[in-house]
Amino acid sequence: MAPKIFYGAVIHSKSLEELEILEDATLVVDANGDIVEFKKSRDDAITMASIPKDAEVYRLPRGEFLIPGFVDTHNHAPQWPMRGLGQGLHILDWLEQVTFPVEARFADASYARATYENTVSDFLRHGITTASYYGSRHAEATRILAEICVEKGQRAFVGKCNMDRHAPEYICERSADDSLRETEECISHIRQLPGCSQSKLALVKPVLTPRFAICCTPDLLQGLGNMMKADDDLAMQTHFNEAEQEIQATRELFPDLAARSEADLYESFGLLGPRSILAHCTIMTDYDKERVCALECGVAHCPIANMTVGGGFMVAPVRDFLRRGIKVGLGTDSGGGWASQMLAVMRQAMIASNAREVVSQGQDKSLSLEEVFYLATMGGAKVMGLNDRIGSFDIGKQFDALQITTTQRLDSAMTPREHGDSARIVFEKFIMSGDDRNISDVYVGGRRVAGSRV
Ligand code: GUN
Ligand code: FE
């Protein structure tokens, strides 16, 4: 890959509350996709010696800017064909009636390949440069998903879903042993996909994916906990305190372990720690929050799914998570969430936080534009333990970026950019009303992998 040099406007997060908006920055990306220079103004001139001779030069016109790629911390790849379906159903009924029949189709490898090709392309087009994917429970389909991420150039965690009970026979795994064996095979396969260079392999990592405790026997949870303990490079993702119906059923299945909190339950199997990604976390006691914080787990906040499918209108206490220093990222939860768009998730995170401010009588202040952008980029990178690689444009990180265009000719939904708009206003217009037509180029590790530019 040729090195690249970008001249123009760059926007990324300096901190949770603060954006860095640079109108005349210079970014140099080397042949490995690493950011090797980041000059913040025209005066801060780059020395010619540091520009690789064969670099491709990109000069962003007015109205275009670079932002870091979006990080989706919770995404069910096999639910992509059913996004938005099953509104009004509570979580366990939604799984039984809508979700399991769709996921069962992934027993067929050719269906899986065709569908996952579209799935990964769709998320890339919407600027999701990194995703934490749940596969279905099928090992072969999950290996195919990992291969497609590598082929299409998306950074991803890919996990074979574990579920050996409380699911219809047509999709339930036969035993904990089968599930663990297939998980191990799947992990080995993903770590050495045939015919892949090291740099391509580095894009995709396996992740342990027990669906949730309801669908996993204690033996299975323990086996996965053992695997996590034995392997420092394995993350774990599951659904956590998502809905009343789910919490109640979990307590009935684990009357002792889950009596006080699902945190105690998952911790008892060795599944909680800095590499754990807990989706939803909507109904959280102080004790739940204390444990999640003390164990350094990350939260995948999925505001669209929380307020549509699965159990009504639930608003995770994100402000309190942030106050306590808990890591928070955003998730499409595609298909519990109806959208592939991280932009829609960011907007819904703001709406949800407005509701939370009202319900908490002003105690939990709503989230600002700066904050939701941070959650969609750096926050997600932290939740996935990738913050030294992605999430912003710091030197040494990989160049995972979106080039945003705001010209009127695009016919996008975006509120028009007008003469005299500041860079901050144009950015706000894009986040609040833009769409994939405004995402002209999507880069992962310095390579252009998608975008609306023809
Ligand atoms: N809990 C267990 N499985 C699922 C799932 O697929 N989606 C959501 N939203 N919650 C779950
Ligand atoms: Fe989910």
TrEMBL record:
Enzyme class: hydrolase
One Gene Ontology term of the molecular function aspect: guanine deaminase activity
Tree of life domain: Eukaryota
GO cellular component, one term: cytosol
Recorded metabolic or biological pathway in which this protein acts: Purine metabolism; guanine degradation; xanthine from guanine: step 1/1
Enzyme Commission code: 3.5.4.3
Biological processes per GO annotation: guanine metabolic process
UniProt xrefs under InterPro entries: Amidohydro-rel, Metal-dep_hydrolase_composite, Metal_Hydrolase, Metallo-dep_hydrolases
Entry function: Catalyzes the hydrolytic deamination of guanine, producing xanthine and ammonia.
Family: Belongs to the metallo-dependent hydrolases superfamily. ATZ/TRZ family.
Name this protein carries in UniProt: Probable guanine deaminase
Organism: Emericellopsis atlantica
